[in-house]
Amino acid sequence: MSTSAPVPDPRAVPERVEGSAPVPDPRTVPEPVEGSTPVERPRGTIDGGDPSQYVRERSTDGRRDVSYPPAPEPLGVPVYDNHTHLEIEDGPSTGSGTVGGLSLDEQLERALAVGVHGVVQAGGDVDSSRWSAWAADTHPRVLAAVAIHPNEAPVYERAGELDAAIAVIDELAAAPRVRAIGETGLDFFRTEADGIPAQLRSFEAHIALAKKHGIAMQIHDRDAHDAVLETLERVGAPEKTVFHCFSGDADMARIAADRGYYLSFAGNVTFKNAQNLRDALAVTPLDRILVETDAPFLTPAPYRGRPNAPYLIPVTLRFLAAERGMDADELGAQVAANTIEVYGEF
Ligand SMILES: [Zn+2]
Predict the structure, then answer these.
(1) 113 CA distance to ligand 1 middle (Å)
(2) What is the pLDDT of residues 76-125, one digit of tens each?
(3) Could you tell me if 325 and 281 are in contact, meaning their C-beta atoms sit under 8 angstroms apart?
(4) What mean pLDDT, rounded, does the chain reach?
(5) How many helices (H) and strands (E) does the chain have?
(6) Angle, to 10 degrees, between the axis of helix 162-172 and the axis of helix 126-138?
(7) What's the rounded Cα separation, in Å, for the pair 115 and 318?
(8) 27: CA distance to ligand 1 center in Å?
(9) How much distance in Å is there from the Cα of 36 to the middle of ligand 1?
(10) Which fold, 2-25+53-343?
(11) Which of 216, 232, 284, 308 could be bridged to 237 by S-S, CB 3.0 to 4.6 A?
(12) pLDDT tens track for 241-251
């Protein structure tokens, strides 16, 4: 089992809500190099081995409650999680100094038990994209998104491997159960100015891949709203464009919806300081709303900080429905239909 550096704990810093300091992005952690000072290099190995063996761990930092929240009551309709990272382990320690975590099969079983009938597993580098494509190919109820994350793009670029990495994404995207390019986009919070050209080049290449393969695109947009919208307008957005973990305000939500983009709401919509997200939700047309966990991060209230997982989707959906003054099953059915519209049948 090849385990890379632990993923930083988002609770170590405030969660990513506009107007406050955002979460460190899990894709930016360089692997430690044994016996030497760690150097920055791509986490993905272009000629990787068995993708099913890939796994990452989320840091527990010793303070966080790493027990899984209780299972919610199922909704009365089947629902989906349109963005998750099940390759990242989280959960109670297994005693070996590592975190535990549910297996992929356990995750899917727990999800199904509460009416979550499918997930879109998103990659962010070569290895996690390979894992995502493998998971979708071997597991019913899993579809994949594959991409080089905007914070990884400059790292690959500096290593002279960005084009090779994007070529791997192109190959993976041809598989029938890879239904999106993602997560791609722009991140002006984590990436320094000198990395922005590579990020932009990578984003545009990913947009082209989504169009070439006729699949959806999941956008990561962090402190880069205007540049993301401008890029999509300039080069032309794929037909199905999703703002994963939508982080804008009501004005941006209106612009995005007017252009036919989808807004995917994550557990942070429940956070006290995320009024901008609730304002955005209030003006988003029902046929543009998606829901995601971004697990293991962004666990909805009242479980913030504990491991997130697809089986918690009903918690966020009920919150969204209450905000909209709707019946949870009615909103759930609409969001499920939107999900199928974007990614196809699971
Ligand atoms: Zn994500």
Answers:
(1) 23
(2) 999 999 999 998 888 776 555 455 678 899 999 999 999 999 999 999 99
(3) no
(4) 87
(5) 10, 11
(6) 10
(7) 13
(8) 9
(9) 30
(10) TIM Barrel (3.20.20)
(11) 232
(12) 999 999 999 99
